[in-house]
Amino acid sequence: MHIHTTFSPCSRISIYEALVTALDLGLTGIAITDHDTMEGALKANQIASKYEIKVFTGCEVTAFEGHILAYGVSERLPINLYAQDVIERIHSLGGVAVAAHPFRNMENSLNNKIFELDLDGVEVFNHVPKRSVNKEARSAAIELGVAQIGGSDAHDSKYIGRVATLFKDEIPDEDSLIEAIIKKTCKPVVPRKSPRHRSR
Ligand SMILES: [Zn+2]
Ligand SMILES: [Zn+2]
User: Fold this and answer.
1) Which residues contact residue 196 at a Cβ distance below 8 angstroms, ignoring those fewer than 6 apart?
2) With a threshold of 0.85, does the pTM exceed it?
3) For labelling alongside 36, which of 73, 81, 101, 129 has CA 20 to 30 A away?
4) What is the mean pLDDT of each run of 10 residues along the chain (200 residues)?
């Protein structure tokens, strides 16, 4: 639910690498969420049909107060808007908004601002070294009564799949992904087969 490709300036994962690594791990789908661009996700979507994996279009939007993950939106969202404006824009385009790593640091995270926003989900499990920040995010999601998402926030392929989101029902398309997040029929998981156990 949170993978960066080389379409983000800070990631080393090519689209091909993201697909192959995820397939190798047995993941059934990935969401590509580059910083402020859907280009990588859209490109990955085009080639994903050749592979047995679904690619969902996402984006990690830089709002004035912090990072927000958008799913189900294929249009580029403006940056440096206030978080609530970004969320409204996402909703008007039919997508859902999830707070990314809300308590990770002061700069790129919404922190306590999330309690004032109309979010659809909170990333409660981000691959961060400090566990307490995930705990804080989980409590916030419970308090807000929104979906709990797990995302690796991978910038290097070895982190893909270290954290994932398990959906109760099958997710054949983007509409079902949006619906599942709204219905909260998902949970963060740490998949059993981690990248370091890979066969190749
Ligand atoms: Zn971020
Ligand atoms: Zn990220």
Assistant:
1) 158
2) yes
3) 129
4) 97 96 95 96 92 94 97 90 97 98 89 97 87 92 98 95 96 97 96 55
Between CA 194 and CA 65 the distance in angstroms is 33
Torsion of CA 142, 105, 123, 165, to 10 degrees: -130
Distance 159 CA to ligand 2 centre (A): 12
Domain covering 60-197, topology: TIM Barrel (3.20.20)
Cα separation, 94 vs 58, in Å, equals 13
Q: How far is the CA of 69 from the centre of ligand 1 (A)?
A: 8
Give the ligand at the shortest distance from the Cα of 67: 1
Q: What is the Å distance from ligand 1's center to 151 Cα?
A: 11
For residue 67, the CA-to-ligand 1 centroid distance in Å is 5
